[in-house]
Amino acid sequence: MSDREELTWEIFGTASRELAQEIADDGFEPDLVLSIARGGLFVAGALGYALDVKNLHVMNVEFYTGVDQRLDMPVMLPPVPSAVDLTGATVLVADDVADTGKTLKLVRDFCSAHVAEVRCAVIYQKPHSEVNCEYVWKRTDRWINFPWSVQPPVVRREVRVLDA
């Protein structure tokens, strides 16, 4: 048995549909899906199509810098969604994994002050996550190889900090 979870594109297709079905079966009808970039972009897109939600937003949050390498705290990167766009909405926050849960907590707490309701959906949740997501496809304590990040970039770019 591998010490890693291996998520392929095919398994991701199954996982995202099953996750969407869990959300639908629960009766939760989000007004918008808020993706945590970058890994959450794939999950949010798949859930948006499966739940027939066309209103997708993105939050860029930096936390992981490599395999098991993180910043001390997650940081929101610009552009940060306008609170006006979220006011009164029912929001589904989508990400690929709730590992420490710090990123999800940052985004959920940002939303909580403005929205009617916020719930979180992830493909994977780890047992030590600070956030217990409402919708989880699989729970694991192993490192996960995602199909979108397992291979090195085609080109390496210099790290740039964008002005707000």
Provide structural commentary.
Keywords: Glycosyltransferase, Transferase. One of its GO terms (molecular function) is glycosyltransferase activity. Residues 9-151 form the Phosphoribosyltransferase domain. The structure is a single chain. The chain is an alpha/beta fold and 164 residues long. The protein contains 4 helices and 8 strands; from the N terminus they run βαβαββαβαβββ. The protein has a single domain, classed as Rossmann fold (3-Layer(aba) Sandwich), CATH 3.40.50. It has helices at 9-25, 39-50, 83-86, 102-112; strands at 4-6, 32-37, 56-66, 69-77, 90-98, 117-125, 135-139, 143-145. Helix 1 packs across helix 2 (39-50). The N and C termini lie far apart (46 Å).
The helix-strand sequence is: EHEHEEHEHEEE
Using only C-alpha atoms, the radius of gyration works out to 15 Å
Principal-axis shape: globular
Give the total of domains: 1
Query: Which structural class is indicated by helix and strand composition?
Result: alpha/beta
Class, according to the CATH hierarchy? Alpha Beta
* Strand order in space, largest sheet: 4-3-2-5-6-7
CATH architecture: 3-Layer(aba) Sandwich
* Helix fraction by DSSP (H/I, runs of at least 4): 25-40%
Percentage of residues in DSSP E strands:
25-35%
Low-confidence sequence ranges? none
- Please report the total strand number as a whole number: 8
Distance between the termini: 46 Å
